[in-house]
Amino acid sequence: MDILDVEFFLLEGKQVFSPQERKGVEHIISKLTSSFPGFDTYAGVLRGAVRVVIFGKNGQKGSRKPAFAIYKPNKNTACYFGIRFDDKKLQQKVKQKLYHEYNKKFSLEEVAGCAEEFNSYLESLSSIEELRDRMNGNSENEIPRIPRIIEDVPPVDEDDVIGIIKKRRGQSKFRKLLLDIFEKKCAVTGCNVVDLLEAAHIVPHNISVNYKSYNGLLLRADIHTLFDLDLLKIKSDGEIEIKDELLKDSYYKELQGKGIRFPKLQGKAIDEFRIALSKRYEKITQ
Question: How confident is the model over 112-134, as a mean pLDDT?
Answer without folding.
Answer: 85
